[in-house]
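tokens incoming
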């Protein structure tokens, strides 16, 4: 008995990826233009720019951590399933129990 382990298809389509990338780009450009055109001193503009940069980098970090946790859960689930498949394959229901 051979078990074929196939990676499940990605739930995201190319169109969804393109929409997410485009949406992120538009939002980042809008914030950058908004900060650049604000009628404030340059040091306030720089402070707001650094805040926006921090928000962007921390959102990437959060997305990576969430993805890593989901991948770890998927690997653990596959390992549990492989162990169960092995136990089921090795089980002989007609074998006399040993004491």
């Amino acid at each position: 008995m051979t078990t074929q382990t196939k990676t499940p298809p990605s739930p995201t389509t190319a169109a969804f990826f393109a929409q997410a990338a485009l949406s992120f780009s538009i939002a980042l450009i809008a914030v950058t233009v908004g900060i650049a055109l604000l009628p404030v001193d340059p040091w306030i503009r720089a402070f707001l720019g650094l805040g926006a940069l921090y928000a962007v980098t921390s959102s990437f970090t959060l997305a990576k951590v969430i993805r890593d946790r989901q991948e770890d859960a998927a690997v653990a689930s596959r390992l549990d399933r492989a162990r169960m498949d092995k136990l089921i394959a090795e089980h002989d229901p007609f074998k006399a129990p040993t004491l």
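note: The chain is about 75% helix and 0% strand.
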